[in-house]
Amino acid sequence: MVLVLSGVLQEEAPPDTRTLFHNHPVYKDSASQLLAIPTKVVGPVGLLYVQQRELAVTIPHDKNVNILGSDDATTCIIVVLRHSGSGAVAVAHLDGAGTDEGVMNVIHRVQELALGYPEGHLELQLIRSLVVFSDSHNYSEGLFHSIMHSFHKQLVEIDLTLACVGELNTTIRGGIHWPILYGVGVNVKTGELFPATFPDKGPDQALRGARHLTGGQQILDVYDCQLGLLRIGPFNYDPLRGVDLWLEQTDDFILQHLSTAPEVEPPHFVMQVRATLKYIQDHPFPAVTVFRDNRPHYYRRDENSGTWVPIRY
């Protein structure tokens, strides 16, 4: 019994979003406040972007990262966990793979960075796009319950302060249910959460996408805030059968077959998937051609440009 809703310790996690909003209408107000904030287009300077099946954690006095963020969430859930005393904050982009382990790692990393701060508690914020009846594959509502259950069974109190999910983050256009908000950024200095899009999604985008497109289940921690290093890999994936054939298909075919919500994907979705498929085609065995000697790809913030540049470490 460690999940706190509306300030009250819960005996069980909410089974779905409608039950949550019915029993705790305060979440409607906090979601409305977030949605009323104009969406910011965030550039690469000072940004640490978290891709699908990744997490990153940092602290307010990190001189390399000003904003943690993630977007392109349709049936996924963006998780933000912050310790109110230390300001240590995590962002994770979860899609149903590795949920329990990912939640445990997010909590552990934030608690680790909050050591030495006698005051403060863990605050959880969730952002997800599609409401269940608009999601033809029923991924979203099941994912919400899975994440709630994973947090609820942890041995620490966690205060859910925002749930901008389901019907609260859905609008109807042309008879189709669309997300209102696809992504968020977090100001790591203040903890402020705001709607955001990120044209630059960081280095090794195709490589990072290849891992989950080929079935990688782990939620990878991609940042060491003590060293200021963005770390990708090492990991391997199995060669994708028929990748040549996939690349020959039309954009619409790729959209319909490789998206969980093809009607509402952002315009760049197919372009990103094609780049990822091409990467898999060029590197069918990344353990051999990409992560030589089992070494990660490391990136450090360049002081002049403010962007991530590769280094040997």
TrEMBL record:
It comes from the Eukaryota. It holds the Pfam family N_Asn_amidohyd. One of its GO terms (molecular function) is protein-N-terminal asparagine amidohydrolase activity. GO terms for biological process: ubiquitin-dependent protein catabolic process. One of its GO terms (cellular component) is nucleus. PANTHER family: N-TERMINAL ASPARAGINE AMIDOHYDROLASE, PROTEIN N-TERMINAL ASPARAGINE AMIDOHYDROLASE. This is Protein N-terminal asparagine amidohydrolase. It comes from Zootermopsis nevadensis.
